[in-house]
User: Fold this.
Amino acid sequence: MQNTTGRLRGALQPQVAKREFWAWALYDFANSGYTTVVLTSVFGAYFVAVVAEGATWGTLAWTLTLSLSYLLIMLSMPALGAWVDRRGRKRFLLFTSTLGCVVGTLLLAGANHGTLWWAMVFLVLSNYCYCVGEAVIASFLPTLAKPEALGRVSGWGWGFGYCGGMLTLGLSLVLVVLGEQQGWVASKYVPWVMVLTAVVFGLAAIPAFLWLKEPAAIVETVQHGWFAHIQHAYKESRAHFPDLYRLLCCCACYQAGISVVITLSSVYATQVMGFEMGQTMLLIFTVNIAAALGALVFGSVQDAIGHRLALMLTLLGWLVMIVVASSTTSATGFWIAAALAGLCIGSSQSAGRAMVGALTPHGRQGEFYALWSFAVQLAAVVGPLSYGIVVWVSQGNQRLALLLTGLFFIVALIVLRKVDFMRGVQHAQHAGE
Assistant:
């Protein structure tokens, strides 16, 4: 225990209390339940099968709805990031986005047969607010962790977050099993799953509002409108921080593939592999265990072997997973692919978040993590939407759509080769002086 405490203390900035780190990590714990239950395991399959009533356009409607929420994030998050840096309002934005996601998830409980627009509106609201909170909480990382420990601290937070996803999913699975034993159909037990997810999120997020300290505000004399700010921020990153710019492009590519796995795995499992809701939830539970291990273990590996090489290894792992998942016809093969996906999700997402922190100038974390969020949300539009279009055009060939998803990881590997990480760190340090 003392050794663990010492490792944590040695990884944090001198002014950061341990409870502040745990409050930050608990937010990852809190919001993981939303992605695990709403986006990955339950509501996606429910949306296609029940809300869209099994229509051929159901998968496309699901991906279009999520794409709209990600598009709104792309247009607004860079300006919001700069605003919270300038005004010192990160905690305020974190609280309001959390409240919006919790309320939106509660209102998803009203989604049922013939309520397509209701489901779409509150899916957009809840997912938009979730994405805002994810970007804000990520921007605290460089103020908590020492530069040489960004990978470890990011991995610890992400790994702990998957434990939260497993808790919410486990409680939801109990609810589903008990409901099915009572003869309930999905339209009766899924609304209660949404309520449970919202409550766990809200309760687990409370320590972040109590103990996370607000970073000092940044004085900025130039004001930008939303669209002008996006243009200015990306022009500056491309001109003065080229390696950060390339990393963001790389993130956009591989996150497009990850977004497909996160938002469409339950649809693929039920529509292609023939899994029942309980089986799908148990599958996603296994994925979360693997993801937690990947994030916790790979964070230290990342600090040891280097950020760039670590991310490259995870992208190669993603390619293997895509080939296995799209070609297997057995439940065992799909379980193996799911476990590999979990390892890759935890390690690649933790690696990307840490790399952005290392390449970010001091005092501009909110703005540059907003750029990271912009890249991630761009990917979340392109990835699932391309999958939905391929399924629609190919008249339901989801195997082909999944196989083509591998192209995103191939392009990410090509872009990553052009990132000079040490040069990027030097540029960030000079800019922050």
Observations:
- The chain has a mean pLDDT of 85.
- Residues 85 and 341 are 35 Å apart (CA to CA).
- The chain is about 85% helix and 0% strand.
- The radius of gyration is 20 Å.
